[in-house]
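Hi Prof. W.,

I finally got the Major paralogous domain-containing protein prediction working! I wasn't sure whether to trim anything, so I left the full sequence exactly as given:
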Amino acid sequence: MKYFSLKFLSSLTLIASICACVDRNVAGGISEETEGVVAITDKTIAGVSQKGPFAKGSNVYLKETKDDGSLTPTGKEFYATIRNNKGQFKIENINLESQYALLTVEGYYTRESTNMFSSCAISLNAATDLSKRNSTNINLLTHFEYQRILNLVESGATFAKAKAQAEKEIFAAFGYEKPDRTAEDLDITGESEEDRILHEISVMVDNGLDNSYTPSCEKSKALIDTIANDFATDGIFSDSLTAAILEFSYQKNTSNTLRILKQYAGLGACSPVEAGNTYKMQRTVFVGGFGYDYAICTGTSWSLLDSDEYNNATAAIQHKTGIMTDPRDGKTYKTTSFTTNGKNYEWMAENLQYAEGKYTWTEAMAIDDSLVNKPNSSSILKDDSVHQGICPENWHIPGFWEWKDLLKYVGSPNKLYSKNWNKIYFTGFQLEDNMDFNAEPTFFEPYIDCDGCNSPYANFITYTLEPITLDRATTIYQHYITDYYYTYIPTKVNDYAEYADQIVKAISKGTLNIVSALFASDYDASDPYIPYPYFTIIVSTKTNFEVNVRCVKN
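And this is what came out:
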């Protein structure tokens, strides 16, 4: 057994004053548990000290408390040094008049953000009942609950009740459910769910609750003090601290994000049943300097929307709905109508279901496969005509210029997506189907042999009267694989208007000008800031590429 001696890191100097701590000699109050106090004799305890792991040579102190259960130190102390850079320690030959002991570790530690030793020393505390354990760890959670436990005991709570209450409160404050194991049992290098929670919190603190840069050790140490002091009085965090934890958690997509969003902004559960549903939050959430007032459920998590995004998504688009009947089989279809540039349009708002409902390009166009490879001069498509294809009488296959008019009118492809699309495959956008167009994914296999081309999509037949040549290829974005060519249309109306005339430019000279209009979404759930709903034009010389059909009234 060693008594008070400040042996420390051989290569480092012990600083005289350490800020990230609660004075290890301060405690007080009389507990109602006085009769349950028992003495400890010849006890040995071991454990690990971690912010990240404390460095070899750091000091660990164990303080005896009075036998009245008050947690007041008697002045008797035991100490040991950290045995290795994993933060491991052992204190032997412990004899105490009460089983309640207070521990403190002081020293340098390995930072999670840099995997290097800290440039400043800190101290962390823990309060423990040694009658029931032979090991106890010291970490951020034991430190944050430490002063809260002392305050509760001082106000008359038993140690057991104070410990249980403080632990439940500290996990809840960070947005986690209280695990079965206590904070003293957790290890940031462990593999359990509880250990992972401790590690996430340690990373939060080491980053100073800031994703933009790695803060100084002094800033991290100051944050430790802020959290401990904020929590000690009432067992909850201030709104400003909770907001900072929420911002960090949302950006890092940590496991506490859903719970802390519920605590701070009043959001409920986000399940596959809720996918695509949007809610106004109880308060504005700030992330990366931007304020968000709405949240849309992805099916597993929440994606935040600002007021402009929400208002744009819900803005009404003038149109009329109706019904048409296919005289060939008597099936009825919803329609949507609008007027743009003096021209009236009436589109089918459901996919044609005559015969099979999915068609190859030549089936949809009602032409022979052999015509696909005929030169443009032989094309059955004329500049001054519409092409009926498989559509009912007085209806026709929409030309690309008609798709262009539709998209320019609504302003963005996601205004045409069905609300159900987000339940099938989350797009990253709030979908209101502002035109009652009801575009839904009907294809689920890859539409092109490329990475990221396998999300569900809706693929519609169209055609262009423009010559299809590679030298007229769009400058927006292009990708050429085998005999496919597709081009991306920006979702913003101003970008679309700027580039709309350059969209359908082709793949090979001398082929029939048949293309397909494709709606898809390659939403990346790991990055909630980059949704990918888009509208694409695909050109191919293959005749078995399947499409849906939306007819337009003559």
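DSSP finds eleven helices and 21 strands in the chain. Does that look reasonable to you?

Thanks,
D.
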